[in-house]
Structure formats: C-alpha cells, structure tokens
Amino acid sequence: MAEDTFQQIHEIGFKRLIDKFKTHTGTEHPAVRRGIGDDASVIVHEEASAICTTTEVFLEGVHFDLTYTPFNYLGYKIVTAAVSDILAMNALPEQVLIGLAIPNKYSVQMMEDLYRGVDAACRDYGIQLTGGDTTASHQLLSVSVTATGAAPADKLIYRDGAQLGDIVCVTGDLGSALAGLRVLMREKKAWQESRSESQFQPDLHEYEFAVQKQLVPKARKDLIESIAESDIRPTSLIDVTQGLISELGSVAKSSGLGMEVYSPAVPIALETRRIADEMNEDVDKYAFYGGEDFEMVFTIPEESVEKFKSDFDDFVVIGRMTEKEKQLTINTGEDKSYQLEL
Ligand SMILES: Nc1ncnc2c1ncn2[C@@H]1O[C@H](COP(=O)(O)OP(=O)(O)O)[C@@H](O)[C@H]1O
Ligand SMILES: Cc1ncc(C[n+]2csc(CCOP(=O)(O)OP(=O)(O)O)c2C)c(N)n1
Ligand SMILES: [Mg+2]
C-alpha cells in the first residue's frame, strides 16, 4: 500500500525513479543477457527457437480506476495481461518491458508500489523486468506492457488450428472478473453519493473471490506447463480477455469452422451467480461477454479429452467444432438453440 509520504516525481527526476524500479525486476531470467540500463534489453538463446512478442496498453479511466485499485495490484494485473498472451501461444514468457506516462498527481511512492506488484507478478511467472520508458503525462496515468517469450517453433499453438469434431474446453470459471468490477463500481457509487469525507474503504469480504479476480488475476501458466508435460497437444489455444463469445468466435472463424457450445456447461462460480442476482443481471451475460477472465480456451481431439484430464484437471468441456455453416451455435439446453454469426 502507498506510504503516507507524497514525494513529487520531479523532486528526484526520472533517472532516480528508474533506479528505484531497478530493485523490482522479478526473477533473474537465464536468457536475459542485459536488462534495465542499456539502450535495449538483450536475450540470448542457445537453441534456435520462436520468439513471441505482445503489447498491451492500459489507460486510467478506460482500463483501470485508481479509486479502488491499489497500485501494487495494478502492477500485478498488467504483467498478467501481457504474460497471458504469451502463454496463449503455448510459449513461456521471459521478459516484460513497461512504458509509463505519469501525471504529477502521482508520487514516487505510488510508482514504487506499482513496481512492487510488477515484481511480485514477475516472480510468480518466473520472468524478468528488463526495461521500459518513463515520461510525463498531463492528466491520466498510462501504462503499456510488452512481454516476450520463447518456444520451439513446432510447439506453438495458434488460434486457427481447431479441427472438425474437436472438443472445445475452458479452464477455471468465467464472469467472475466482471462480477468483481460490478461490485467495485457499486461501492464507488455509494461512496460518492454519501459525499463521505473519509477514504474509500468498502467492506468487500463477501465478494473476495470476484474482487480478487478483477484486481489481481493470475495467468494460466499451469495449463501451459501441463501441456509441456503431457503427450497431448491442443489444436488451438486462446486466452479469454475480451469475453468468452468473442474468443470462441475468433477460434471458429480463423479455423474456417463453426462451433456448437452447450451453454449450461460454461463454468460459473457460485459467488458470480450471487453477485449477478444482487445486480438483477443475467449471469450468463457475465460469463459470455465479461472479459478479463484470463482463463484459456483450447480445442483437442475427442479421444484425447479423458487422457488430458489426468494431466490437468481444471477445465471443462463446453462444446465441439462443427461445419462452418453452423456458425457459433449456442445450445441452451431443452433443445433450444440460437446462432451467432461469425
Ligand atoms: N518505466 C520503466 N520501467 C522499467 N525500465 C525502464 C522504465 N523506464 C526506463 N527504463 C529502462 O531504464 C533504462 C534507461 O531508460 P531511459 O532513460 O529511457 O534511456 P534511453 O535513453 O536509453 O531510452 C533503459 O534500460 C530502459 O529500458
Ligand atoms: C475502470 C474499468 N473499466 C472497464 C474495465 C473492464 N475492462 C478493462 S480491459 C477489458 C478487456 C478488453 O480490453 P482490451 O484492451 O480490448 O483487451 P485485449 O484483448 O487487448 O487484451 C475490460 C472488459 C475495467 N476493468 N476497469
Ligand atoms: Mg489476448
């Protein structure tokens, strides 16, 4: 959490601010030859392999709200977002670089808290913070994160590899990140309407699972590790950031196929259902369109499902790849279904 002191960044300057960031670089990754300090980071691979890169931009007010987001959680979440994209190629992340544009309403201490979260995430994912850029901003904090990772080229899994008849699977549960966001937004509104002079300190203990999932999501490195150890390889893989329906559509469309999804099979946590009830909203909408779940969707041949279950058990089957003509068919049970165009 932020300390009580508020030191203006211009008092110490960007160079000394970056020096502080240098003490929060996560794991020393063996492939990193040069980290923070030179003009560019350097990665050295002994064996030829594929390199994956990805960038995510996060803008205050659009992607995060600092009323209810502690800086260290924000640091953790931005690393998760970039790492999740690397993992979704079935590659292992190695480094992240972070670009910051900081308005002067934020202090040195706040930025250090942000980097404490970056450091914690880098340690959890076994990666190193190797560089970035720091600049001033007028009103809003902007954070961009670039991650790179590596894999043997023939091990990469793309979103367009699904085959006719393959089974569609999803890890964990869906919709809880949006449920957490709804709770946080409701509490913020109540606090604003109360015109309270006190700090925003809502009691969130009944919503801990969903709020954690919104504020400090974890990327599914465990799935990628299990794939590496298993002799089964998914035919396609994508992470759930925009929302389940959007990702399923991407897999089907890019694979040149259709998909049938059995909606009662979509995994939803009890707490997510309770929150949707409280908000008088349809929990299926949370799960289908929520986004920011950082779960993984993958397809595998039908005969591999049981075997893979013994290698990795935190997934469920939600559908099957079909002919293209079926588009994205949502089967709601009781023989009712509707089609979404791809
Ligand atoms: N926000 C940041 N987070 C992590 N590393 C940073 C950040 N800003 C700058 N760096 C790293 O600090 C070093 C110096 O950065 P900078 O002063 O921008 O140098 P340059 O003129 O080479 O761009 C570089 O290695 C850069 O990657
Ligand atoms: C203040 C605030 N507004 C909105 C959201 C919800 N939100 C932020 S990012 C996101 C997912 C889509 O982001 P995008 O940058 O399009 O994702 P990408 O596929 O590039 O990862 C969602 C649903 C939030 N967490 N906080
Ligand atoms: Mg993505």
UniProtKB/TrEMBL annotation:
<feature type="binding site">
    <location>
        <position position="85"/>
    </location>
    <ligand>
        <name>Mg(2+) 4</name>
    </ligand>
</feature>
<feature type="binding site">
    <location>
        <position position="292"/>
    </location>
    <ligand>
        <name>substrate</name>
    </ligand>
</feature>
<keyword id="KW-0784">Thiamine biosynthesis</keyword>
<dbReference type="GO" id="GO:0009228">
    <property type="term" value="P:thiamine biosynthetic process"/>
</dbReference>
<feature type="binding site">
    <location>
        <position position="115"/>
    </location>
    <ligand>
        <name>ATP</name>
    </ligand>
</feature>
<feature type="binding site">
    <location>
        <position position="63"/>
    </location>
    <ligand>
        <name>substrate</name>
    </ligand>
</feature>
<dbReference type="InterPro" id="IPR016188">
    <property type="entry name" value="PurM-like_N"/>
</dbReference>
<dbReference type="GO" id="GO:0009229">
    <property type="term" value="P:thiamine diphosphate biosynthetic process"/>
</dbReference>
<comment type="function">
    <text>Catalyzes the ATP-dependent phosphorylation of thiamine-monophosphate (TMP) to form thiamine-pyrophosphate (TPP), the active form of vitamin B1.</text>
</comment>
<dbReference type="InterPro" id="IPR010918">
    <property type="entry name" value="PurM-like_C_dom"/>
</dbReference>
<feature type="binding site">
    <location>
        <position position="55"/>
    </location>
    <ligand>
        <name>Mg(2+) 1</name>
    </ligand>
</feature>
<comment type="similarity">
    <text>Belongs to the thiamine-monophosphate kinase family.</text>
</comment>
<keyword id="KW-0418">Kinase</keyword>
<feature type="binding site">
    <location>
        <position position="338"/>
    </location>
    <ligand>
        <name>substrate</name>
    </ligand>
</feature>
<dbReference type="GO" id="GO:0005524">
    <property type="term" value="F:ATP binding"/>
</dbReference>
<dbReference type="Pfam" id="PF02769">
    <property type="entry name" value="AIRS_C"/>
</dbReference>
<feature type="binding site">
    <location>
        <position position="39"/>
    </location>
    <ligand>
        <name>Mg(2+) 4</name>
    </ligand>
</feature>
<feature type="binding site">
    <location>
        <position position="39"/>
    </location>
    <ligand>
        <name>Mg(2+) 3</name>
    </ligand>
</feature>
<feature type="binding site">
    <location>
        <begin position="132"/>
        <end position="133"/>
    </location>
    <ligand>
        <name>ATP</name>
    </ligand>
</feature>
<dbReference type="InterPro" id="IPR036921">
    <property type="entry name" value="PurM-like_N_sf"/>
</dbReference>
<feature type="domain" description="PurM-like N-terminal">
    <location>
        <begin position="37"/>
        <end position="150"/>
    </location>
</feature>
<feature type="binding site">
    <location>
        <position position="241"/>
    </location>
    <ligand>
        <name>ATP</name>
    </ligand>
</feature>
<feature type="binding site">
    <location>
        <position position="133"/>
    </location>
    <ligand>
        <name>Mg(2+) 1</name>
    </ligand>
</feature>
<dbReference type="InterPro" id="IPR036676">
    <property type="entry name" value="PurM-like_C_sf"/>
</dbReference>
<feature type="binding site">
    <location>
        <position position="85"/>
    </location>
    <ligand>
        <name>Mg(2+) 3</name>
    </ligand>
</feature>
<keyword id="KW-0460">Magnesium</keyword>
<keyword id="KW-0808">Transferase</keyword>
<dbReference type="InterPro" id="IPR006283">
    <property type="entry name" value="ThiL-like"/>
</dbReference>
<keyword id="KW-0067">ATP-binding</keyword>
<comment type="pathway">
    <text>Cofactor biosynthesis; thiamine diphosphate biosynthesis; thiamine diphosphate from thiamine phosphate: step 1/1.</text>
</comment>
<dbReference type="GO" id="GO:0009030">
    <property type="term" value="F:thiamine-phosphate kinase activity"/>
</dbReference>
<dbReference type="GO" id="GO:0000287">
    <property type="term" value="F:magnesium ion binding"/>
</dbReference>
<feature type="domain" description="PurM-like C-terminal">
    <location>
        <begin position="165"/>
        <end position="326"/>
    </location>
</feature>
<feature type="binding site">
    <location>
        <position position="85"/>
    </location>
    <ligand>
        <name>Mg(2+) 2</name>
    </ligand>
</feature>
<keyword id="KW-0479">Metal-binding</keyword>
<feature type="binding site">
    <location>
        <position position="239"/>
    </location>
    <ligand>
        <name>Mg(2+) 3</name>
    </ligand>
</feature>
<keyword id="KW-0547">Nucleotide-binding</keyword>
<feature type="binding site">
    <location>
        <position position="159"/>
    </location>
    <ligand>
        <name>ATP</name>
    </ligand>
</feature>
<protein>
    <recommendedName>
        <fullName>Thiamine-monophosphate kinase</fullName>
        <ecNumber>2.7.4.16</ecNumber>
    </recommendedName>
</protein>
<dbReference type="Pfam" id="PF00586">
    <property type="entry name" value="AIRS"/>
</dbReference>
<feature type="binding site">
    <location>
        <position position="54"/>
    </location>
    <ligand>
        <name>Mg(2+) 4</name>
    </ligand>
</feature>
